[in-house]
Amino acid sequence: MRTMKPWVLATTLAVALLAPTSGHAVDEISITTPAEGATISRSATPAMTLSGGVAFEEPVPTTRTLYLRWNGTPGSTECSMSDAYLADVSGVDPGNGCSGFPGAALTALPGEDDYNNRFPSGEHVKTPITIDASRNITGTITVRGVLNQIPNLAIIDVVVELDEVALRQRFEDAQPTTTSRRDLSLNIDIPAELDRKDVSSVTLTVYFQQYLGAGWTEVENPASSFRLPAYSASFNRRVELNFDNPTTRFTATLSQDATSWTASRSTPPIGSRTLTARAIQGGTVLSTATRGFTVTG
Fold this sequence. Notes:
Blueprint: H1 6-18, E1 28-33, E2 39-41, E3 47-55, E4 61-70, E5 84-87, E6 115-120, E7 129-131, E8 137-145, E9 155-162, E10 165-172, E11 182-188, E12 198-199, E13 202-209, E14 215-218, E15 225-231, E16 237-243, E17 250-251, E18 253-254, E19 260-266, E20 271-281, E21 284-296
Parallel strand pairs: 2-21
Antiparallel strand pairs: 1-3, 3-19, 4-5, 4-15, 6-13, 7-12, 7-15, 8-11, 8-14, 8-15, 9-10, 9-13, 16-17, 16-20, 18-19, 20-21
């Protein structure tokens, strides 16, 4: 019996490990029926059965860290809130230290939200984000002040908005002073109805209530941020089909394990036809497949 050399064995094993296995790779779609180049009689087959395979990215729990950023004017302490935003990455912000005077701070009552720092998501945050409601939103938001404040006065609310759902955490006796900062430790429950839902916008707002003096949300020293429990991929998965015209797409039925799809559709008019199938997850087209066939009378 011939003995295989060690380097040949290693190469053989590597090829075997890299070779595709049965089933579909991640982010792949295929068409099984109709067969490529099939001829279908419209009179004999008024409705076509369509089928194929698909593989979506498997959602696994992860955490998205979002940073509070402020792209204001360097050296300025009066910055427009239009310069505030959330981002997936931290960095040095020229507007750090922006402050403002609450207009009705001395007479404001809790809940009036007279003065706030609002940080919306936008182009700097990759969305949609698939929410994991089994865990809480955590993180640290740092606030600072420029005057010696009256103790036991300030109430600061931190609100995280996930699309239209606002989640609020209140901090009492949270007045920052000239000699110290206040670190607001977040621990916010997420309602069960948001579990596995895709959200397209996230906004964090710091509301200064019953507050005296000038203050701001620190974005750089240290960086304020929060951790949003999420999944690595969306549970919103579907297969869309169309004959020739992409404006007339229809949705296939997925198998329970989301590895195959089926659909039934009236056989298109006589002629050369193309079936297009595309796999969509969380609003993103993952892959597309086409199949040509001919319809006769």
